[in-house]
Automatic annotation (TrEMBL):
Signal peptide: none annotated. The keyword Zinc does not apply. This is DEKNAAC100053. PANTHER family: PROTEIN TRANSPORT PROTEIN SEC39, SECRETED PROTEIN. It comes from Brettanomyces naardenensis. Residues 59-734 form the Sec39 domain. One of its GO terms (biological process) is protein transport. InterPro entries: Sec39_domain. The keyword Transmembrane does not apply. Keywords: Endoplasmic reticulum, Protein transport, Transport. GO terms for cellular component: endoplasmic reticulum. Residues 738-761 are annotated as: Disordered. It is found in: Endoplasmic reticulum.
Length: 809
């Protein structure tokens, strides 16, 4: 095999330089060796197929691999920078007197012996060295282009310096992973071969990964770039931000500069977003799914990220479409997701997008985010529609409807919409405890109804009625009055009136006691108070409730040991039954006729039973006059008289005198008051006929005679005879007692002449205002009963008797 001398020379030069660089005895020695190779490198610019060229790229490759790692990076970079500066100077004024053979002078024995071998062995040895060095250089990303002729121009030398610096930094990182080279880079930034690509690589690759290494242990930089695909690199970066919850630091210091360093990486970022979106919508764990949407929110909260994305319109459109697709395809109703989604959309609205068409709807849902986002064209109007849909989803959270289901609800039939609306109202009402909360809830409900098409098959009156009944069910009467009726309800007055009264009667019938301050009766009264106008039905129920309250002053039951309930009162067909029962069960209750009268009035009005008795028409006092002249009050007092006549003669007497006096005063006026008392003449008669316990006194008999005297004037004519006969009987009894009293007085005259006279008949008549009625009555009694009976028919008997009594001389 014939060997070209130049190949032998190149091989020997390569091996000698390799030796000096590998040994690196001193910086001076290395600089001297590199300086001696300059003429050879300059003369070797001619392209060749031989692998050993000693051209500048191969010399730098040799320095990259061979200079030991214990040499400081700064020194290495300075040495290389000086070498390139010398090359540049040499190229401008080549010195033909300089010989590269100086490289071989005064060589150490070991290398001297190596290059003294046979030429073939030297060349093979050099080739093996080249293969090894190429392999090592490739590992650190150094371009293997040693066979390529490179012009000795500053631009080309800067490019070579960049390649060397990048690879040497990667090599340095392999052995010193925790050491930052930033200080070194600052110091060499003044090198004439410092270039923009080197600056961009440092700030777009090295520095971002240095920042990332603060959070996790990353692979050596050489492996990161060589063994991780672009998608894996982005996954590592964003995975760190998520795992360490360090979005601001990782995105600003690592992700953004890293993506901007290489063209096309923003599309890779969007593809990561697509994969993350598909992973999210298929996540079976609800909590993890919500967390993933929080991650998306954390991304859009990074203003630096949004500004960087907005530089590329295509990337921005895809970014927005992917986020919307991930939100739209969420298969579950998760409150945290709605909250995050709402903020995400709000953040996206800062971008200047095309206006679009108002009401732009979401397209039909697809199976994956990958397919979905390609159908979306983001515009301002579209984002507004999305925001409204998300707002609706958040407000309808209790219905457990996904965003897709909510959007589809607008095309459902009325029954489905009504069902979901009722479910919505039921779920929302669980959170309302006071007026402020309910105002918020109602605002939410009506916002959906008025601002979306979700419930387009339901009219506003139906919504009002549904909410009204729910609030009445919940017994939130203050909220109904102060919030719902005042701010939201648009129901016609008659409709709201009907709903309220329905609930008022329902609560009344549910009541188990008569106290309107507690329980269902309280709720019934609260319903009534919601109605501003005192309509007849309102007045009826209000009176019935107040009647129940009045009943609390008495013992009352219709079954032994079972207290009366409001419902039992409602079912009573005769209010007087209540009055009778009170008088039966409550001792002395007859002494409160006024209270019983008021109770009776309320019962009559509350039960609306004016037609049960003719007297009940006087329950409404508007046309009656003073209460004391109300015929129904007199009727109640007469009932009390019946109960008092046997137990409480003093009270019965006073009540009788009161009632008979009223009757006599109104006899000639033909008033209803007179007729009521006259019709109950027997109550007085029965009281007079009741036996007096013990020996009767003249005073007691005088009382009864007074009652009989006035009763004769009140009693219907056909019943005067028994009254008169009783009067005669009582008068005779009084006479007997008077005679007995006189005999006793005569026998005791010698004891005391000052004994006071026992009140007699004359005193009674004088005090009663009847004058000499007694004497006239005595004269009248001389006429036989047969004369009286024969003097007139039965209808005139009473009047004839009265006439004879009053007119007797």
């Amino acid at each position: 095999m014939t060997l070209e001398p130049s190949n032998i020379l190149l091989s020997k030069s390569f091996l000698v330089l390799e030796y000096f660089l590998s040994e690196y005895s001193s910086r001076t020695e290395i600089e001297d060796a590199l300086s001696k190779i300059v003429p050879l490198a300059y003369s070797s610019q001619t392209p060749t197929d031989f692998t050993i060229t000693c051209q500048l790229p191969q010399v730098l490759e040799l320095a990259l691999v061979c200079i030991p790692n214990n040499v400081s990076l700064q020194e290495i970079l300075e040495v290389v920078s000086s070498f390139l500066a010398e090359c540049l100077a040499y190229s401008q004024t080549p010195n033909t007197d300089r010989s590269f053979e100086a490289l071989f002078e005064e060589l150490p024995p070991i290398i001297s012996q190596a290059i003294s071998l046979q030429d073939e062995e030297v060349i093979n040895s050099a080739k093996r060295a080249v293969d090894y060095i190429d392999a090592q250089a490739s590992r650190f990303g150094y371009p293997i282009d040693s066979r390529t002729s490179v012009p000795w121009e500053k631009k080309a030398l800067r490019s070579m310096f960049f390649s060397f610096c990048r690879s040497r930094i990667l090599k340095h990182n392999d052995t010193n992973p925790g050491e930052s080279v930033v200080p070194v880079l600052r110091k060499i930034s003044g090198s004439p071969f410092w270039s923009e690509p080197l600056y961009e690589w440092i700030h777009g690759f090295y520095m971002p990964l240095v920042h990332l290494s603060r959070f996790i242990e990353i692979p050596p930089l050489s492996d990161f770039d060589s063994y991780l695909s672009t998608s894996e690199q982005i996954e590592l970066i964003l995975g760190t931000a998520i795992e360490k919850n360090a979005f601001t630091a990782v995105i600003s210091d690592t992700l953004i500069p890293y993506l901007e360093h290489q063209p096309g990486l923003w599309n890779e970022f969007n593809q990561w977003l697509v994969r993350f979106g598909d992973k999210t919508i298929n996540e079976p764990d609800t909590k993890k799914m919500a967390t993933n949407y929080t991650v998306l929110l954390d991304l859009v909260r990074q203003d630096n990220l949004l500004r960087a994305i907005s530089k590329n319109r295509e990337v921005l459109d895809d970014f927005i479409s992917i986020l919307i697709s991930t939100i739209y395809l969420c298969p579950k109703a998760i409150l945290e997701v709605f909250v995050s989604a709402k903020e995400i959309i709000g953040s996206l609205r800062v971008f200047k997008l095309d206006q679009g068409v108002e009401g732009d709807a979401l397209p039909s849902p697809q199976e994956t985010v990958e397919k979905m986002y390609q159908l979306i064209r983001p515009t301002s109007a579209f984002l507004k529609s999305c925001e409204k849909a998300i707002e609706t989803g958040q407000r309808l959270y209790g219905n457990e409807l996904s965003l897709i289901e909510i959007v589809n609800l607008s095309t459902s039939d009325s029954s489905t919409q009504l069902s979901e609306l009722q479910k919505f109202i039921d779920s929302e009402s669980r959170y309302g405890k006071n007026s402020r909360q309910w105002e918020t809830l109602l605002s939410s409900i009506y916002w959906i109804f008025n601002n979306t098409e979700i419930f387009n098959q339901v009219d506003s009156e139906t919504l009002d009625e549904m909410i009204f009944t729910k609030l009445l069910d919940l017994k939130f009467f203050n909220i109904i009055s102060n919030v719902f009726l005042a701010e939201f309800c648009q129901l016609p007055e008659d409709k709201s009136h009907s709903i309220i009264m329905k609930y008022a009667w329902m609560y009344y019938k549910r009541a188990t006691n008569c106290n309107p301050d507690i329980g269902s009766l309280k709720f019934s009264l609260a319903c009534v108070n919601l109605i501003g106008n005192e309509t007849p039905d309102v007045a009826q129920l209000r009176n019935l409730i107040y009647a129940n309250k009045a009943l609390m002053n008495w013992k009352l039951s219709f079954k032994p040991g079972v207290p009366v309930t409001p419902k039992q009162i409602l079912e009573i067909d005769e209010p007087y039954k209540v009055i009778y029962r009170i008088l039966e069960l409550n001792e002395g209750s007859y002494r409160n006729p006024d209270a019983l009268f008021r109770l009776l009035k309320m019962l009559i009005m509350g039960l609306n039973c004016y037609d049960k008795r003719d007297i009940f028409k006087y329950a409404d006092e508007s046309d009656v006059g003073p209460e004391e002249l109300n015929p129904m009050l007199a009727d109640v007092k007469l009932t009390c008289l019946d109960f008092a006549s046997t137990d409480d003669t003093d009270y019965a007497y006073n009540l009788s005198v009161e009632l008979l006096g009223l009757a006599v005063d109104h006899k000639r006026k033909e008033s209803p008051l007179f007729r009521v008392i006259s019709d109950k003449w027997f109550s007085f008669f029965q009281f007079v006929k009741n036996e007096i316990e013990g020996s009767p006194s003249i005073e007691m008999i005088d009382r009864k005679l007074r009652i009989l005297g006035e009763l004769i004037l009140v009693t219907p004519a056909e019943f005067n005879i028994p009254v008169l006969e009783q009067w005669q009987l009582m008068n005779a009894q009084k006479g007997q007692l008077s005679n007995e009293a006189k005999g006793d007085q005569n026998s005791a005259a010698h004891t005391s002449t000052n004994t006071p006279e026992i009140p007699g008949t004359y005193n009674f008549f004088e005090s009663s205002g009847l004058g000499d009625l007694r004497s006239r009555l005595q004269t009248s009694l001389k006429t036989s009963a047969s004369d009286i009976l024969n003097s007139a028919d039965s209808a005139d008997i009473g009047r004839n008797i009265i006439g004879r009594i009053v007119g007797a001389k």
